[in-house]
Amino acid sequence: MSAPIALIDCNNYYVSCERAFDSSLVGVPVIVLSNNDGCAIARSAEAKALGIKMGDPIHHLRDVVRRHGIRVLSSNYTLYGDMQRRVIAACEPFARDFEIYSIDETFLDLAGFEGRDLVDHARAMREQVRLWTTIPTCVGIAETKTLAKLANAAAKKDARFEGVADLRDDAVRREVMDAFAVGDVWGVGGATARKLTDLGVHTAGALRDMPMKQARAVGTVVLERLVAELRGVPSDAVESVAPRRKGMAVTRSFGTPVCDFDRMMGALSQYALRAGEKLRMHGLVAGRLTAFFHTNRNRPDRPQYGGSRTVTLHPMSSDSFELIAAARRAAERAWRDGYAYTKAGILLDDLVPEAERPRTLFEADTAKRDRLMGALDAINAKFGTWTAVTATQGFKREWKLRSEMRSPAWTTKIADVPMVRA
Length: 422
Hints:
The protein is α+β, with helices and mostly antiparallel strands.
């Protein structure tokens, strides 16, 4: 029998992070907006009860916000990332290993804890997370990741489980799976769900009972593995070593539309600078860079255009200055005057570890540039992002994202640390 796996999921994570430092948000409807204050990406239980859906544009919600006194906040990813670190620290004593699946979900390897009552074990973990961070969580326990996802969903939606669902019990597992829609199973996309429902497979339980050969015919080996996981056969263990990255992206929407090339290059330079920093952080170099930008696709009444070009990096590099130069070459080829661009980005692919990159015959000595990149990273790490920037990036950055309702950096900026006076 395989070792049990748990999935701990933070409830209404972005809102819960905000509430941890602002008690006035507790018990009232709260929504957190996406980049550029565009649409709702997190909602408190009170906001959900008012009918606010994930992805609702904020300009469609003005009347509802005003009528019900909904608190609206800009996203604060620095805070959410740091709170994730604290949640993981609280969970570490309760598992042999862990794998971060997303900013609010983590798989835990419970090997070695099988002799305990794992429901009580999970409840103790939830309590420690709550004490350390105030963030509420739910936990699902099972033999595979897919079943752990189902267990977590049951723990969140069914009050009988009191926040912890253990699907290792046959009767509980069958009851949950027979009531779980097949389209909501982790890994079943919309097209696959339609194929399955056409075949009469409407629940997770029915998918579990599908013949393996038929599952492969409907959804390739991916669906076949998913069926195996629903039967309690793990397709992989918790990944303590992250798989090699194949690509990387830095993209943003603009706070105000960009209409001239110099301002566009200011944005692309910032993204390329950040992309180089991420490459160096992971010890990688890139072989290709793509720069892209496009207009607002939700405004068909305005002129539309989207441009992108890819350039080869030869030799492969993680040097931010070389990435900026490559971004300029790509942007110059893709640029068209007369449009109001609302989003742009840098994509990197053909990534390999720096030590494995192919060498060129007349390659220059990069030691000096490597030291420069190291100094640049150290300055920005110590004094804050964008302390040291390139001239092309500029300092005004009128195109930067709107975040007019962002909360303070409670845990990462000394000036914003909460003060308690006794």
